[in-house]
Amino acid sequence: MSTITEKVCIEVLSLPRQGRVEIAHRLLVSLEDEDYTEEVSETWRAEIERRREDFRTGNAKPVPAEEALRQAYAAIA
């Protein structure tokens, strides 16, 4: 970890809970909008974006991890 990163972490971790929540939220939002890596094909980029939008608009229903794994194992068994 760089010296600047370490200093920022120390400062942020010394903030009250609400300040840490605000910074965490801003960091997560900033990561959400990052470009996809070049390793991902254009087809997958479009699919990822479609699924993300479906989830955000409520057109896709989240499934608990345990249920998703059960379904995946059932599909390959």
What can you tell me about this protein's structure?
This protein has 77 residues and is mostly helical. The chain has one domain (3-76). The chain is 71% helix and 0% strand. It contains four helices and no strands. The chain has helices spanning 3-13, 17-32, 42-57, 65-76. The model has no long low-confidence stretch (mean pLDDT 85).
Content-based structural category: mainly alpha
The helix count comes to: 4
Strand content: under 5%
Radius of gyration: 18 Å
Q: What's the SSE pattern?
A: HHHH
Gross geometry: elongated
Number of domains: 1
Largest pleated sheet: none
Mean pLDDT, to the nearest integer, reads: 85
State the separation between the terminal residues, measured CA to CA.
44 Å
Number of strands: 0
Provide the low-confidence segments as ranges.
Answer: none
| Helical residue percent band | over 70%
